[in-house]
Amino acid sequence: MNVTWKSLRAVLWFGTVAASTVQAEPFVVRSQHPMMALFGLPAPLPARMPTPGRGGAALAVDWSNFATTEARDHLAYTLDGEVVETRATLTYGLSQRFALRGQVAYRSLGNGALDGTIEGWHDAFGLPNGSRDKLPEDQLLLEYQVSGVTAFQLEREAAGVADIPLALGYQLVESGSGALAGWLSVKVPVGNAEDLTGSGAADVALSLAGERRFGERWQAFGQVNLAWLGEGDLLPALQQDHAWSVMGGASWNAWRGLDLTAQLEANSGVFDSGLDDFDGGAVVLTFGGSYRTVGGWRFDLGLSEDIQADASPDVVFNLAAHRDF
Predict the structure, then answer these.
(1) Per-residue confidence (pLDDT) for residue 20, from 0 to 100
(2) Are the CB atoms for 175 and 30 separated by under 8 Å?
(3) Which pLDDT score, from 0 to 100, does residue 56 have?
């Protein structure tokens, strides 16, 4: 029994030492604006390619709530509802420098259940409710009007498989303290624009993803993306032909396998409607923590807030589980 206990303590001690340096990655989340999220701006991608023949798998859930409305001159829009998106991601190393990544997502749009909680949070801390004071609680309505004529409207619950992003990565630079990778992404139009599960067109994007470690406890990371958007079925007369985004953040190893992360992302809009908050351009702050187990699992819990009010959902909960293989 004594030998068994000593062995167990040795294993736990080794796991603690092995996990005591920062190994965090960015939260795999971007603006969940219900219209912009259908287009092909990539979420954060790895700066380091996995070992050839190995890779990683992840399952993530983004739960977002939005409530914004505006009328100006002859234009008006309302975006009021909730989206739950569940994503499975697989990354595989092809060689020392090349890797593949693919994602399959299921999006569910509904009236949701977070309105009351968010309004209570705002009231408790003296924060403004913005458009929420003008809209019914737990309503589902997405609408865009020009001179009183409805150009787009969705007020029924919808769900389905979303467009599928596929990406090929190339390791440009790698060392013990830093890495830089280039990625080519293609978003395959599997979803349906009428259900807000896809844009109805293929998009192509180029990305640069980098990271830099500072000692054992700090790590900085960033990414830039430029996407060319195919002409889709979602308000094609207003759609832009390209979009960009930038992301940067840092992680700190707070305790053993616990890393705390904060990241900031800004992106351009995908429409030119004359109403900025409808177009999808946003600034989003995501913060939270990741916990790594001795067995190789990593669990993420993140919260995204709209820095640019009404340009993205008030709140997005991000939960994820990762496992290397």
Answers:
(1) 57
(2) no
(3) 96
For the stretch 105-127, pLDDT in tens is 999 999 978 877 887 777 777 77
How far apart, in whole angstroms, are the C-alpha atoms of residue 201 and residue 187?
A: 8
Beta carbons within 8 Å of 120's beta carbon, 6+ residues apart: none
* Whole-prediction pTM: 0.90
pLDDT, residue 246, reads 98
* Strands 297-306 and 282-292, bridge-based pairing: antiparallel
pLDDT of 18 reads 44
pLDDT value at residue 14: 43
DSSP calls for 301-312: EEEEEESSTTSS
Q: Which two tokens stand for residue 283?
A: 């600034």
Neighbours of 42 (CB within 10 A): 26
Residues of the chain below pLDDT 70: 1-20, 24, 128-129
Amino acid symbol at 116:
G
Angle at 287 between CA 176 and CA 119, to 5 degrees: 170
The C-alpha atoms of residue 278 and residue 70 are separated, in whole angstroms, by 9
Beta-bridge partner residues of 221: 211, 249
CA angle 289, 24, 280 (to 5 degrees): 70
At 100, is the secondary structure helix, strand, or coil? strand
Q: Which residue has the tokens 């068994």?
A: 4
Hey, which bits of 215-241 come out as E strands? 218-229
